[in-house]
Structures
1.
Amino acid sequence: MIRYALKMLVFMLIAGVLFPVAGLAHKVNIFAYVEAGTVYSESYFPDGRAVINGKVLVFDSAEQLLLKGQTDKQGMFQFPVPKMDDLTLEVDAGMGHKNAFKLKKTATKE
Amino acid sequence: MRRLLVALFMFAILSSSAFAHFGAVIPSVDIVSAGDSRTVALELKFIHPMELIYMEMAKPKEFGVSTRGKRYDLLDSLRESKREGIDPAQNFTYWLSDFTIKRPGDHTFYLVPQPYWEPAEDLFIIHYTKVTVAALGLEDSWDQPIGLETEIVPLSRPYGLWTGNLFSAQVLLKGKPVPFAEIEIEYLNESADIGEFVKPPADPFITQVIKSDGNGVFHYAMPRAGWWGFSALSEADWTLPYEGQEKNVEIGAVFWVHTRDMQ
């Protein structure tokens, strides 16, 4: 019983030390630009690692979902410009790591 | 009479200005976040940063940005500008550039100036100068050398620094650490608000001097908000001609970082 309690204590201490750090280090980012009618998005962690298989949701200015997709091994996801509007791209890398990027209407015309 | 002599003596010492020269590349911001303007205005100059004494700067030999593993030449973006010296009759040239961030990633701007002839030291000075601007959350290359003859490579991330933070970095010459390198450090007094300029109480306060360890690594804690320049000087193993004589060349590795007060 004492051994079990000690084990739990050690586990909790390790988890307490590790997770807050992991939470910060894993802030996810998404960036997008338009070239010749195609929206190119890239999703990445601050240290440069790609967000693999992250869910990407694309909304218009009325917050209506226009399309969704998944990032590849390079963190990329691309699609034709769905609408001449201010777009919001949201990436979800799981474990509550989310972020969004606003692509202005003026940029979608490029 | 004695007081007058002391005053004259102090004036002579303070105005002799044998203090450190610094190449400088000062961007309008050190961090570009999503939602910020993507255009960064840059000033390139050759100065005594604490005393705000400018030196004439010829059009640089190289000016560019290193990002995502590639270097881009920005020499054509430079615009010449003039600034009054302490003596208003004298104007000094410095250079301006605007750069628009296109992709996320660390952007390390670098400057290779034309050799500057310094008669007081009987040598040429070339300061290889760098500054890193962070863009859109991708912190991918601030810890990498970009391949200059001599350069300072940060060991502390060179942006998002608080006042009082310790800045650690390594001095490289031809890609190898410089043991026990001498590093000069100055505060850019232009960072201070008007009327808040730092007034050094004695000469040694103008330029801070530290040495690296045997592996070229140095540390310095910055006591005030604003821009700080770090300059590690080496002597080149090559010379340049001046009036028919070969002269030594001082090559400096200069790096600029910005600090902010915690609020």
2.
Amino acid sequence: MVSKPHGGRLIIRIASENRRSAVLGAADEYPVISIGLREAYDVENIGYGVYSPLDGFMVYEDLENVLMNMRLSNDLPWTMPIVVSVDEDSMDFGVGDEVLLSYMDRPLAVMQVEDIYRLDRRLYAERVFGTTDPSHPGVYNVFREMGEYLVGGRIELLDTVDNPYARFYLRPMETRVLFRERGWKTIVGFQTRNAPHLGHEYVQKTALSFVDGIFINPVVGRKKRGDFKDEVILEAYSELVKHYYPKDSAVLSIVRYEMRYAGPREAIHHAIMRKNFGCTHFIVGRDHAGVGDFYGPYDAQEIFREFPDLGVTPVFFKEFFYCRRCGGIVHERICPHDESNRVRFSGTYVREAILEGRDIPDYIVRPEVARVLMSHPDPFVS
Amino acid sequence: MGQGKYTTVSIPKSLYNRIKKLVEETGFKSVSDYVTYVLREVVAMHESERYEEPFTEKDLEEIKKRLKALGYI
């Protein structure tokens, strides 16, 4: 049995065709909130149930509970604020109105405004990111990019941002059917935003040894300079799954989402999203959703202890590495040899090798994957 | 913003004392913390027993068609 959606019900907030035509036909009459790509993806994730049980952007009571208790006002575990902000001077609507949420002048959703409240930037940053240091990208966003007011209310999805990777895009309704069709009862979710090296593969396969299938779910969204481009990650993973996974043991599908880099809190959020896709388990590795040295390497694993009612089982891993003495990929608990024998997997190493045109050893990256990375004319985000 | 809203429930004094003793040997800060933790686990288990997928037979056929077209099944 695939996992039940978070809160017990898969939320679908897609406007009917009639409703959509009516709203878009009268679009000029609605007040508009201009949203960025982050909120555009949030709209889509609410509409398709990736964020179940959320059916809209958070009202004050929910945000307060999320910040202070890491739970929604109905006590369900929820760690990340899902909010939309506005500046006072662009607020030409009130509670009870319907507004359009538009991304680059394209209406993506209609929202029934239920609450308008002031953003406490300091509290938000301290509680979500554990810091108010502006060098943290999430904190920077809170202090420099978010408006002064938050607007909460239910949404209905009208449209989505163009998706160049539609071939790899499945909604929770679809993954839940797919898992059932494959006869999977236990599914482990793997979140990634990187091209795969053997360390990733061994984590995935170790977890796969104990479940029916793995759901490899790369995050597609705005990335940092120097990260692999989304198309490179997808092509690399396609090759890996094709050549190194048993038939029908893995599903590769993207989620459109913008990372917040909130470390432990975001790890819980990632687990909830995968639960809604139908996963029963979720892999949490080293420094999950972290950035710089803002979080301890295993903080994102520790936080799961606080949620006995999460409804998805975390699977914790330490770091895998190649050991010359063992002659294979191992980890701390099964390798007795010292550091001089160990080759650590490093994204930086792979990046430098590609930029310098050096061969990548096959105990670091599979040759088929390396070919994808090396043959791409411009594999990195600039 | 407050630290959360609380209410009081009654449990037998003898049970309270058992939990208090147990809590001293664990990472829980108080009997209330322990009881909250255990209840959340139990409540979630019962809640998860009630669920039906939200799609109709027609939805199901359409989803399967798309999954086939994409090569997933």
